[in-house]
Amino acid sequence: MSKFWSKVVHGLTPYTPGEQVQMPGLVKLNTNENPYGPSPKAIAAMQEAAGDSLRKYSDPSNTVLKDAVARRFGLTREQVFVGNSSDEVLAHTFHALLKHDLPLLTPDISYSFYPTYCSLYGIDAVYVPLNERFEIDVADYAQPCGAIILANPNAPTGIALPLAQIEALLVAHPDQVVVIDEAYVDFGAQSAAALLGRYDNLLVIQTLSKSRSLAGLRVGFALGHPDLIAGLERVKNSFNCYPLGQVQQAGAVAALDDVAYMEQTSQAIIASRAWLTAQMQALGFDVLPSQANFIFTRHPRHDGAQLAAALRERAILVRHFKAARIDQFLRVTIGTDEECAKLVDALKAILS
Ligand SMILES: *Cc1c(COP(=O)(O)O)cnc(C)c1O
User: Fold this and answer.
1) Which of 21, 32, 68, 269 could form a disulfide with 253 if both were Cys (CB 3.0 to 4.6 A apart)?
2) What is the pLDDT of residues 225-274, one digit of tens each?
3) Is the keyword Ribonucleoprotein in the record (predicted)?
4) Which CATH architecture has domain 7-37+260-351?
């Protein structure tokens, strides 16, 4: 607390990211980082870009990167917004598109940055409970609202909604923006990007942090009708005209163009997820059906916080949320097969 703070600062609840601990031999399964490194083509492109041209400001409209995203999704440049991480794209989205007279609808259990942005931008939100299977039921969103935001697959549950359900939401709310945060979509879910031509109220947000293994590069993007994108551009250009540097853009373009590498590494993670799920179930854990690069799991007879602490003593980090309804769960990132096996061995020892 300080008397020098602006009034709004006193009321903020900042997001708490998973810890970034440095420790030899640590098995780090707490922040959904990709265990396979970025595309070698992305690394090469960044090395190439790190030269004398850094003297100049980067392109404020990021056309090269927008075109790479547009190519990937069969869209035009005017349907693409890019930013320094999808967290930044989300922040601009809350600011530009989600503050209305009626409340924003979002699930009670979802990405915990959403309530943080609501408090930052003074947005009134209604937190719609997930059903008893921890699924989003789109029928629960049939209520007056100013806008809707969902993560699909949802986080931290990992459960994905089929495209038909997203479409039902878009049809039911033609005068509200529906934002779908697809941070994990490449691990087995269907992207709502396929619906963009038909719905002017849809905004899809993705990141290069998860399936492109570039969490440290900080690149995210949004796809939507040019009018939505123009709103985001107005906010971005009132905040920072150059959020992406040249090195960052060069890496992002090469990563987006290397589709084969992304698909191959994502398939490896999907296979490890199936193996880990079966192993956890054999140990008596309930595992929610995940389409993401993590699983959300609880043991009917062992406390979640205690399990997380016992794993930590064995140098294995997983994420535990002290939140209503989910305080018995652990969110476990899918690591390499070796890391998944270490986790299973540790759990066997802890449970016995
Ligand atoms: C990881 C994550 C993000 C943020 O990704 P960055 O681009 O690294 O900021 C956004 N939404 C959800 C649901 C996530 O899990």
Assistant:
1) 68
2) 999 999 999 999 999 999 999 999 999 999 999 999 999 999 999 999 99
3) no
4) Alpha-Beta Complex (3.90)
